[in-house]
Structures are given as C-alpha cells and as structure tokens.
Amino acid sequence: MTTVNILSGGAAQGLVRGLTETFKAQTGLSIDGEFGAVGIMADKLRAGTAADLVILTQALLAKLAEETLVIPSSIANVGRVETALAVRSRDPRVEVKTEADLREMLRSADAIYVPDTKASTAGQHIGKLLDQLGIAYEVASRLKIFPNGATAMRELAASTAQRPIGCTQATEIIATDGIALSGSLPPGCELVTMYTAGVTARAAHPKEAAALVALLTGADRRELRRRVGFAD
Which PANTHER family does this chain map to (predicted)? Predict the structure, then answer.
C-alpha cells in the first residue's frame, strides 16, 4: 500500500495514531514515518530523508520554510503542548506549585527520566531548568536521558527506582501506558510549545500530505487534539 511519510516531533505521535484510520478511509493511503526529537527530525529532512509532511515546532518549521524545504503556504498550527511532570501509574501524583517545590521534588527523586537534552524541545528546557534551579550538578547522576520523550516515558513506566519522576511533553505522557500526567511545571518554570505541520517541497504525495495537515488541524478534530494533550 502507498504511504504518506512523515517526520515528526514525538509530541504528535498520539494524534497521528488517532487519525490513521480516518486518513486511510479518506485517501486510501497509510501513514509511515519517524517520531523523535525535533532537532533530529529537522536534520533528517535537511539530509534528504524522504518525507511528505513534517510536524515540528513553529520556530523550526518556519526555518525549514526559509530553507525552501517546506512549502510556506501549507503550514498550519496543530496546537500548543505543555512540558509537564509524569509518575508511574501506581505512584502518588506529585504537585509542585512553586519553583522551590520543584527543586525539592527533583532533589528527592532517585531517578529523573527525560528526553534528549540537546535536540528535543522538552529536554532542552529541562536542561536549562536544572541550571535555573541550581541543581544541575547535584542531580546529574540521577538523570536518565533517552533519545525522545516517548522512550523516556516507557522507561519510566518500567523503572524499578523507589522515587522516579519524568518530565517531557504532556502528549507523550498521555500516550504512554503505565504512567500518569502528574501536573504542570510551576510559574517561572513552564514551557508551552506551538506545533505546526507542513508539506515538504520534495513531497511524493503532496495532495495527500495536505489532506493530512487538514485532518491534524481541522476544527472537527479539536476534541481529539485535546484528549491527546494539545491545546488551541
């Protein structure tokens, strides 16, 4: 079967999965591709990886359009995603209302599961946050860093640590079995990221890719987007 290939940030994996059958019924095509740290996905497109569609942060997609790798007129906002805290489903939820609460919670965790701190949106933020809190050196040995948020959350679900915590984008937390969305980051520590979708300049199936963008961003899919962790 012919496929539409995508390169996407991990934040959109649950949403794409939720639209796969609808897209197939509408176009006759399946969806294939890669989900991971947005910086790595952008570099794959630059390196010539075949893709019809990209779903990345607004800033990255604008840059790819400037580089003539994405068609500017095809770009549309999917929604905003917050970076949040996660715990194993069997563990008590944690609530942090202030920066001091967050500092103490991270200090007390014996394992901290996070995505790539150099190439992923949430991971970069977490790295800066640990510096902001003044505990980067203190917790360095307890950081469990994985290529993307989805992998980090699967590893958190399987963790045998006593007091593990995870931090990544809410959509990746919601999409992972065995863990629970525990709460937002407190004021002064929060990050909310707009994700956008666009058709690539070298798309093999530009018409179908545009149809997928319409599905991802359409008003009639607002409830699905909300359920998987996106906000308008």
Answer: BLR4797 PROTEIN (PTHR30632:SF11), MOLYBDATE-BINDING PERIPLASMIC PROTEIN (PTHR30632)
Q: What angle do CA 139, 140, 144 make, to 5 degrees?
A: 100
CB 88 within 8 A of CB 165: no
Element of type H or E holding 180 = strand 179-184
pTM: 0.87
- Predicted local distance difference test score (pLDDT) of residue 205: 96
Contacts of 44 (CB under 8 A, 6+ apart): 7, 34, 51
Mean pLDDT of the chain: 94
- Please state which of the four CATH numbers 3.65.10.10, 3.10.180.10, 3.40.190.10, 3.40.50.2300 is assigned to the domain occupying 81-191: 3.40.190.10
Which residues have CB under 8 Å from 227's CB, separation 6+? 18, 174
Residues of the chain with pLDDT under 70: 1
pLDDT at 196: 96
The token pair that represents 66 in the structure block? 């400037």
